[in-house]
Amino acid sequence: MLKGVVASAVLLLVVVLVVRTVHLSRRPPQTSECKPTDSDFIPLNDERLQRFQKAISFESVSRDDGDSNSDEMFRYGEFIIASFPHIHRHSPLVTWERVNNLSLLYHVQGSDPSLRPYLLMAHTDVVPVTNLDQWNAPPFSGEVKDGFIYGRGTIDDKNNVMGILEATEFMLASKIRPQRSFYVALGHDEEIRGYQGAGLVAKRLAEKGVKEFEFIVDEGMAVFEGIIDGVSSPVASVGVSEKGMIVVKLSVEMPPGHSSMPPKETPITVLANAVKRLADNPQPSMLGYGVETDMFESLVPEVLDYDRAVIGDPRVKMEVIQAMEPHPVAGYRDTDFGYQVTIMVGNTDTIHYLNFTGDVYRFSPTHMFPGDPERFHGINERMSVKNYEQVINFFYHLIRNADQAGLSPAHSTHSDL
Ligand SMILES: *[C@@H]1O[C@H](CO)[C@@H](O)[C@H](O)[C@H]1NC(C)=O
Ligand SMILES: *[C@@H]1O[C@H](CO)[C@@H](O)[C@H](O)[C@H]1NC(C)=O
Ligand SMILES: [Zn+2]
Questions:
Q1: Name one GO biological process term (predicted).
Q2: Residue with the nearest Cα to atom 13 of ligand 1?
């Protein structure tokens, strides 16, 4: 007997918001290249390397809502607190707290209260490990092999967690006081959407009276080498927005019948045809749409209308299970902190902080060569020893450069696409 058949399909909106590319040569002039011979270069000594390896060794895995290695996350947090004495104990500039026991929030007080603070984000949780037999080194070892540090979290996202902390610790130990205040938020459940971590940190920030950030830097794109067609030099890509997302349930109900006398059409064939038509006719690019019009105008009805027209069969019912609008587009002019821009393809924790700024830059200083993107959430996740040193120095320079007043003016509009 055939009853109604219900299927759900995940349809990712192809809302490409940003295509304009700004070549690296158009970097703001105030940023100069950093070299290991600079007096402010932070070398990756044994201590710093070992701290990173130790960070990798915590199995701080998020699997699903309510299914995380909380004990390991807590131990990782304890390790962080013990490992950076200036941040957690000695410096009068820092206030910090645990949020929801497992996330960490820091405030570093700058000397100039007229400069709007910014936020550096990272997450301490990692995704589970699969295909253990195919790893070149145990995934929670942090083992160094042929110049690479192996392990879950080396590029997502313990590199950024530890890089931000090393840079901050170095600055405080050097008795340098930044002019611009900044916050650091280390969430513990980004891999499962961040409601217990970043979500509550955002709430806490609002409670503390924080209203606006100058900008936010979160994980995201990377430095691509030999990956972008036709470009041989390294390309630093900064995500300035995120795609929207919609989950739609399709269902078909038809009168029951007996399978010994199958009708010409069944709910299964009607549904299969609908799915086939959707697959053959993907959502058009809405480039510019959400930006040129009011960016808070909902795109969901447009998307549903399109799908309904493509399916062209009123027997297929559509129901929105979940939807997220594309994020606002961060400014990316020369005066806006510009790097090359491209679009972020996954969804991260930044959604929890959008009330604080329109300028979210999704960038990790991770060098990616052909074959490396598959290591994200994949097998043999690794980062070169040299790259980890660059990560630390990237954050240090970011913190120092953020003192420049040139970044300060508020961006009146993001509608320049
Ligand atoms: C924090 O989490 C750890 C690890 O799960 C747990 O042992 C501890 O009791 C928690 N503390 C609080 C205050 O909830
Ligand atoms: C952002 O602000 C809106 C309107 O004030 C509020 O409804 C929403 O809950 C806030 N979102 C977050 C993540 O705090
Ligand atoms: Zn991540």
A1: amino acid metabolic process
A2: 101
